[in-house]
Amino acid sequence: MCRYRSAAVLMLACGVALVACAPAPQAPPAEATPATPATPPPPRAAPATTAATVEPAPVLARSECPYPEFDAFLKHFGNEITLQEKATADPLLDSYIDAEAEPEPRKVESRLALADVEWPVMPDPAALAGQGREMQVSTLAAGQRQVQIRTPDSSDQQTYTFAQSPCWMLVKREDESI
Fold first, then answer.
1. CA dihedral 128, 134, 140, 143 (to 10 degrees)
2. Do 91 and 114 form a contact (C-beta atoms < 8 A)?
3. Is 169 a residue whose pLDDT tops 50?
4. Alpha carbons 73 and 109: distance in angstroms, whole number
5. Taking 60 as the threshold, does the pLDDT of residue 127 lie above it?
6. Is 128 among the domain residues?
């Protein structure tokens, strides 16, 4: 057994080296077009890396956002469902109070897929006064904004949290009504 120990160690080292090696990523096949022998193939670019082949969604600069200032954004967000659909996080952090939970009411939190959100996700701020409701906007840490909509002298209260990255987006909705 001692006679084969160095060979076993060598084979083990080679095996580890081979496992650590990965084949170079292959470029995706080009569209199938008939190639004629007389036409030379187009020059090939350097092999693409995996990071280059996966293209993330385009990131907008703050100046490219339709409403970079929060006050203008909020006015349009509450009024335009199409803007709500584009400017709501997927998933949306959602919570509500389960008043029938035992032994006492409890907060229920979930991540709500965009497809499951009921629109409008937030009422129109311009219509709140006519409904006897109030709105208060506050700034949180890291530049987030919180919009609290409530009916005075009742438990009817909803809080909406927005983050800017780079455009404003609804990231959390809390219904604190009992």
1. 30
2. yes
3. yes
4. 26
5. yes
6. yes
Per-residue pLDDT at 119 exceeds 90: yes
Biggest CA-to-CA distance, the chain? 93
> Distance between CA atoms of 55 and 138, rounded to whole angstroms?
36
Residue 95 vs residues 19, 41, 158, 159: alpha-carbon distances, Å:
47, 58, 10, 10
CATH number at residue 125: 3.10.450
The domain tally of the chain equals 1
Residues contacting residue 48 through CB under 8 Å, at least 6 positions apart: 25, 27
Domain that holds residue 117: 62-175
pLDDT higher than 90, residue 23: no
**Beta carbons of 121 and 173 less than 8 angstroms apart:** yes
Other Cβ atoms less than 10 A from the Cβ of 163: the count is 16
Q: Which pLDDT value is given to residue 60?
A: 53
**Is 74 inside a domain boundary?**
yes
Nearest-10 Cα torsion for 95, 98, 99, 100: 180
In a domain, 68, yes or no: yes
Residue 9 in any domain: the answer is no
Alpha carbons 41 and 172: distance in angstroms, whole number = 53
Q: Both tokens of residue 117?
A: 């959100």
pTM of the model: 0.65
Could you tell me the two tokens for 29? 């096949």
| Average pLDDT along the chain | 78
